[in-house]
Model the fold of this input.
Amino acid sequence: MNPLRLAWVHFRVIAMYELQYRINFFVQLVQSALSVATGLIAISLVFTYTTDLAGWTRPELIIVMGVHIAIGGFARAFVFPNMEQLMRDIAEGEFDFALVKPVDSQVLASVRRIWVWNTLDILVGAIVIGWGVRDLGGASLAGAGAFIVAVTCGAVVIYSLWTMITTTAFKVVRIEEVTNLMGGIFDAARWPVSVYPGWLRGTLTYVFPLAFAVTVPAEALAGRLTGAGLLIAILVTLLVFGLTRVVWNIGVKSYSGASA
Amino acid sequence: MSRLLAVYRKEAAVGVQGQAQYRVAVFFSILGFLIEPIVYLVVWRTVAESAGDVNGYDVAAFTSYYIVWTLVRNMNLVQSAYSWDWWIQSGRISESIIRPVNLFHRRLGGMAGFKVIWIMAWLPIAAGLSIAFRPELSPSGLEIVAFLVAIWLGYVIRFATFWVIGMLSFWVTRASAIFETVMVGELLLGGRLVPLAVMPAWVSSIAAWLPFKWTFQFPIEVLIGRLTPEEIYTGIATQLVWIVVLGALVAIVWKRAVVKYTAVGS
Done:
């Protein structure tokens, strides 16, 4: 079965199920509003005392925040729930049920669960990005095009990183804390990586390349991203995605099921 | 009273042993927690580098503030309000209701024990942070003693605050929106995001009427030497007042909650 079709079928079924719990929509709405408000307050506090943060202006930082919210929404809606399920299945030996299905196991493990209401953050992030771009006085067509490519790469990088980390659960069962740590590191991506000292910037660029998920797409819209920068982002994405596939295959081979 | 102290001692000892089994897990959790202050620290150091002085906070003061923040955060980690959602929905709370010692005392003691292991996990991280950011700390004897008192009082205040908020789950099935609002309140009004001196004056005047700053900002400011002895004494007295107020609230809400609660199948 085509991976996209498989994902769509799951999405439809889960969306129908989740729509029964409409109160969750309002809960999510409150959470999104709080997150945007806190972010805006932090930015406006910073700009009470300075006119730029390591070369980034206020509208540019609003764009970074918007991308962070949107990518975070994507991760919470589509990536984290699947990875949680995967961890649970491996720990309880129930991953057998996924492996015996006549579809690619990585694809199936990546589309089974969705927290539908978190997609609201993608919309909220987009609105914040739009607001930042308006304050910036608009973005060029090339910038918008580069943004779409960069943000797609960003989503793939996030998916790949989390899948890779979760795949280590095939070897070392208890990894909740590592994913918590990754969650903390993702919060650091809320600000452009150029703000951070070398060791942290290096971590966010080369070890957990979250810079490519948030800072780079924002740079594209702010007109700061060069063609070479975009090319590097694409190459890193392909590399991380390819590596994830290799790690997945190694992980699945070492899976033995419960009491096997 | 002495029996209650014995309960605290036992629960704390069990807490230490429980956490000691998951040393690596604790280390990673603490590492994850500490990214939040590092982000604030870097951002505000950058601001202070260009602005020079932010309402009395320069680069060195921000650095000390957020490095001490990491220790205070370790100490004021408490039972999550979200636990109540699960305790009530799964019916786990039933067994705690019938026990002779209130769950509040047991968890307060247990989580106090956790801190021994958390501090051990924090030490190497703190050493790394100190090398990376070089905070300037030279507390007096009074400040060190007052800090040790203030962080424990702050722990009790924060524990009781989130205990009361968590108990709202007895009445509301999806209380997470309430929890998140309270946490944002703490972030902005407790000196967690930035010292309140950096906030507009009206924010500080609201914060003065809430418990949050007594769990974050107050202990931090005691150790980094920003308070006079009089302010330290008054602060500790205010912490004690909050403990009495919140303790009374815990007792009142618990009493009503237990009446409200129905186990499934009863």
Q: What stands out?
A: The longest helix of chain A spans residues 58-92. The mean pLDDT of chain A is 89.
